[in-house]
Specification:
With 302 residues, the chain is an alpha/beta fold. Helices cover 41% and strands 21% of the residues.
């Protein structure tokens, strides 16, 4: 039998590929995280990670354990809810970044609705910057979005890097302004792209602006320009560009943010009936997303 606590720790390490980040997410010491992983590896009799001082990677057996761990924890949580005699109810306003439109987030939400049919889930898909604003204004209860550079709020779900992407046939002239394909403000990827280009003295022009990811993808596939995008979520038909005159964009964090915890007040700014029910529902959905976090950087057609 595999210990649920060790499985949760395994998932956190597998999703962040960092013992340090997993410890922060779980509120544990790094030595405890290492101990959990070591005991799980002892229980399986197989190494689940290869690790050195610079990197952590899943082994083939570790990849296999991902599916088993999710299934075991899901069954464990359903049994706990059933025998605990508690059924979650209420309204939950959940916001997700546009980045996850093409991933397997819908599968996670479908499973959540199946397990908690009495929760009225309202989904908002928007730019990360707008989701942050709506959360602060009390219009959302839980948000899955990019974290602003330098920000420490939220529970880390996944860390990746940003890349310049475009059509495979695209060729950029280093002597002309970079043609940008971007979301409108306050998109965080747009802000990062402009910041690094200006910091490196690289001229730019806006070739396409769209509030929808599908619009940006169409423009990029047509060869209108380049877009800054999460490396682990590159849409089909587009590729990373390796032009020397394009500066590095750096890392990006995807985090979960709770209205009450991040802003220290109820979501509507005052006492709201059902607030405890909403908080419990938000906690349950957050747990489901954290358990399935590795699926958030896999396309739905993968």
């Amino acid at each position: 039998m595999y210990d649920p606590g060790q499985l949760r720790t395994f998932l956190a390490v597998a999703q962040t590929l960092s013992f340090t980040q997993a410890a922060r997410r779980l509120g544990l010491r790094q030595s405890t995280v290492s101990q959990h992983v070591r005991r799980l590896e002892d229980a399986t009799g197989r190494p689940l990670f290869t690790r050195d001082t610079h990197s952590v990677e899943l082994t083939e057996d570790g990849e296999a354990m991902l599916g088993f761990a999710r299934s075991i924890l899901a069954a464990h949580d359903r049994a706990a809810a059933f025998f605990g005699g508690t059924r979650l109810r209420g309204r939950l306003r959940f916001g997700a970044s546009e980045d996850f439109v093409l991933t397997r987030l819908p599968e996670i939400l479908e499973s959540f609705r199946h397990d908690h049919p009495e929760i009225d889930l309202e989904l908002t898909v928007e730019l990360s910057g707008i989701l942050h604003e709506r959360l602060a204004a009390g219009l959302l209860d839980l948000v899955l979005a990019k974290r602003r550079p330098g920000d420490t709020h939220g529970r880390l779900v996944w860390q990746s890097t940003l890349a310049w992407i475009g059509a495979p046939h695209l060729r950029l002239d280093p002597d002309r302004p970079v043609p940008l394909i971007a979301f409108p403000p306050p998109a965080l990827t747009r802000a990062r792209a402009l910041e690094v280009l200006e910091a490196h003295g690289r001229p730019w022009r806006v070739a396409c602006t769209s509030g929808s990811l599908s619009g940006l993808i169409a423009a990029a596939r047509a060869g209108l320009g380049v877009m800054a995008h999460t490396r682990g979520l590159i849409p089909p038909g587009l590729v990373p560009l390796r032009a020397k005159h394009l500066p590095e964009l750096g890392a990006v964090d995807f985090v979960l943010l709770h209205a009450d915890r991040e802003h220290g007040a109820p979501a509507t700014g005052g006492a709201r009936p059902g607030r405890e029910a909403t908080r419990a529902a938000a906690d349950a959905l957050a747990a489901a997303i954290l358990a399935g976090g590795d699926r958030l950087h896999r396309r739905a057609d993968a």
